[in-house]
Amino acid sequence: MKIKLLMKSILTMVLILFSQLAFTNEGGLQSLRGSLPLTETGLTPQTRPWKQNSGIVNRDYEAQPPVIPHEITGYKINLRSNKCLTCHRRETYKEMGATMISKTHFEDKKGNGHVSANRYFCTQCHIPQRDIPPLVKNTFTEFQE
Ligand code: HEC
Ligand code: HEC
C-alpha cells in the first residue's frame, strides 16, 4: 500500500517537473511553429496565391466534395445572390465551361428542382486550393476510379 502511494507521488512530481519544463522552453525545440517559446505569439505564416484555373483536381476518396480549382475571392453567397450558381447552375454551366452542380444538390423534401437549401452555401463543402507542399510527408494515395 505504502509503495503504491510513494510511486504515485513520484509520478506526480515528475509530471509537474515536465509541465514546468514545457512552459520554460526558451527556444531550441524545433517544431512546426519554429523554435519560438510557447509564451510568444507564432510568426504569421506566409500565404501563397490561390491556384488559378488549374483544371479539375482528382478526388481523393469516394463522395468527396471536389475542391475548387479557381480563385473565389469576392464571390458572394447570401440570401439574395449566389455567385457560384451564375456559372455552375443547370441553365448556364455549358456556356461558362463549368461543371454542373451535382444532381444530389437538387434533392430536398419537396423535390422541386431547385438547389436544396442544404447545398446553397457551397463553401461549406467546397474549398479553393493554394499551392503548398504538405507540412508533413505522408504516403496517402488517392482513390482510384
Ligand atoms: C465565372 C464562372 C465561375 C464562378 C463564378 C464559379 N466557378 Fe467554379 N468553376 C468554373 C469553371 C469554368 C470550372 C472548371 C475549371 C476547369 O475546367 O479548369 C469550375 C470548377 C469548379 C469546381 C470543380 C468541379 C469538379 O468537377 O471537380 C468546383 C467544386 C467549383 N468550381 C465550385 C465553385 C464554387 C463553390 C464557386 C463559388 C464560391 C464557384 N465555383 C464559382 C467557373 C466558375
Ligand atoms: C453539404 C455539402 C455540399 C454543399 C453545401 C455543396 N456541395 Fe457540391 N458536392 C458535394 C459532394 C459531396 C459532391 C460529390 C458527390 C456528389 O455528386 O454528390 C459535390 C459535387 C459537386 C460538383 C461536381 C459535380 C459532378 O457531376 O462532378 C460541383 C460542380 C459542385 N458540387 C458545386 C457546388 C456548388 C456550386 C454548390 C453551391 C450552390 C455546392 N456544390 C454545394 C457537397 C456539397
Describe this structure in words.
- The protein has 145 residues and is mainly alpha-helical.
- The chain has a domain of 80 residues: Flavocytochrome C3, Chain A, domain 2, CATH 1.10.1130.10.
- It is elongated.
- The model has no long low-confidence stretch (mean pLDDT 84).
- The structure holds heme C (2 copies).
- One heme C binds next to α2.
The backbone outline, from C-alpha atoms, is elongated
How many strands, what sense, and barrel or not for the largest sheet?
Answer: none
What is the annotated CATH architecture of the domain at 52-131?
Answer: Orthogonal Bundle
- The SSE order reads HHH
User: Helical stretch count?
Assistant: 3
Unreliably modeled segments: none
Write the layout of secondary structure elements.
Blueprint: H1 2-23, H2 83-88, H3 93-96
This protein binds heme C (2 copies).
Structural key phrases:
145 residues, 22% helix, Flavocytochrome C3, Chain A, domain 2, elongated, binds heme C, mainly alpha
